[in-house]
Amino acid sequence: MKRIRQKEFKKRTLGKCMFNVSPGSAIGLSFFSTIIPAKKPNIQKVNAVNNKQLRSTQRFICNETQQTLYRQEIGTYYPVGNEKVELTQEEIRAIKKFDKVGMTLMGFKPKSYLKYYHNVKHSMFVFPDEKKVTGSS
């Protein structure tokens, strides 16, 4: 009976990343979690007549002309002083990707600096990932 009540699942990675210890040396990491809190599923809107799931769409409408805008027509700006500096999608992508993907060790601090509210989620276990970088373990 105990075996029937147990919920078995395959141990799956929650994520993978590179951990840069120093310039030129990196370790591949995999993140696992044994306990994940259950969440309520998202609300699904259905048609009252045939009980089929509805699909939502999104349209962007110009405030001045009341016309539908396409993605390439929507501009992005950043306020500098009293002016609005326009940015293209390529410039925004370049700003977001300024360095290597992963974590970099920047230094150490004493354990007393760690506050209680820094740990607010469930535990994650970190294991070396041999598939990304051989010799990580």
What does this structure look like?
The two termini are 38 Å apart. The chain is built from two helices and eight strands, in the order H-E-E-E-E-E-E-H-E-E. It is 9% helix and 26% strand. The chain has one domain (2-35, 42-128): Beta Barrel (Ku70, Chain: A, Domain 2), CATH 2.40.290.10. The strands form three sheets. Strands 7-1-2-8 form a four-stranded mixed β-sheet, with no helix packed on it. Strands 3-4 form a two-stranded antiparallel sheet. It has a two-stranded antiparallel sheet with strand order 5-6. The chain has 137 residues and is mostly beta strands. The model has no long low-confidence stretch (mean pLDDT 84). Strand 1 (15-22) and strand 2 form a beta hairpin.
Provide the helix percentage. Answer: under 10%
- From the coordinates shown, what is the CATH architecture? Beta Barrel
Termini Cα gap: 38 Å
The largest sheet is: 4 strands, mixed
Shape: extended
CATH class: Mainly Beta
**Secondary structure tally, helices:** 2
Tell how many strands the DSSP assignment holds: 8
Strand order of the largest sheet: 7-1-2-8
**Mean pLDDT, as a whole number?**
84
Tally of structural domains: 1
**Strand percent estimate:** 25-35%
Reading the helices and strands in chain order gives HEEEEEEHEE
Weakly predicted, low-confidence segments? none
What Rg is obtained from the alpha carbons, in whole angstroms?
A: 24 Å
Question: Structural class of the secondary structure composition?
Answer: mainly beta
CATH topology: Ku70, Chain: A, Domain 2
SSE inventory with pairings:
Layout: H1 2-5, E1 15-22, E2 25-32, E3 60-61, E4 68-69, E5 76-80, E6 83-87, H2 89-96, E7 103-104, E8 125-128
Parallel strand pairs: 1-7
Antiparallel strand pairs: 1-2, 2-8, 3-4, 5-6
